[in-house]
Amino acid sequence: MPTYSDDILRLAEANMVPLLPGEPTVELANRLCGDRIIIAAAVQVGGALEIHWQAEGCAILKASAAYLARTLKGISREAALQRVSEFMRTFEVEAKSTPEGPLAPVYKLPARYKCALLPWQACENFLRERR
Fold it and tell me: Which residue from 55, 49, 48 is spatially nearest to 29, judged by alpha carbons?
């Protein structure tokens, strides 16, 4: 299965949810490859989240950020932290099987894990810092 599957390329082309001026953000970067992500989360009526993001880097980084925003849209901060934790655990060495979904090709490429995890780590940092 190629690294840049059709699912990854489609997600990577998804529009970023633009950051709002003056909005608190968290930024993470991978200095080795140049990937950079800025994350913010707007809390909507009823406590539902909307993830705002801006990314520079590879298709895996952008696809993962788009998948993050789609996965967490409309859920609570607590539920979002749970989903982030669950997603990040899928990349642990002890994982018994390769998860399915749009980022499945990345699980076979340990050198690219950082690309996929960077948006999720930034989101976790943001959600924990902004309690």
Answer: 55
| Domain that includes residue 59, residue range | 6-129
Dist. CA 52–CA 24, nearest whole Å: 11
Starting at the edge strand found earlier in the chain, the sheet holding 35-43 runs 26-30, 35-43, 49-56
- Rg over alpha carbons for the chain, rounded to the nearest Å, is 14
Please report the sign of the dihedral spanned by the C-alpha atoms of residue 83, residue 87, residue 88, residue 93: positive
At 70-113, the pLDDT tens digits run 999 999 999 999 999 999 988 875 555 667 778 888 888 888 89
What's the structural domain count of the chain?
Answer: 1
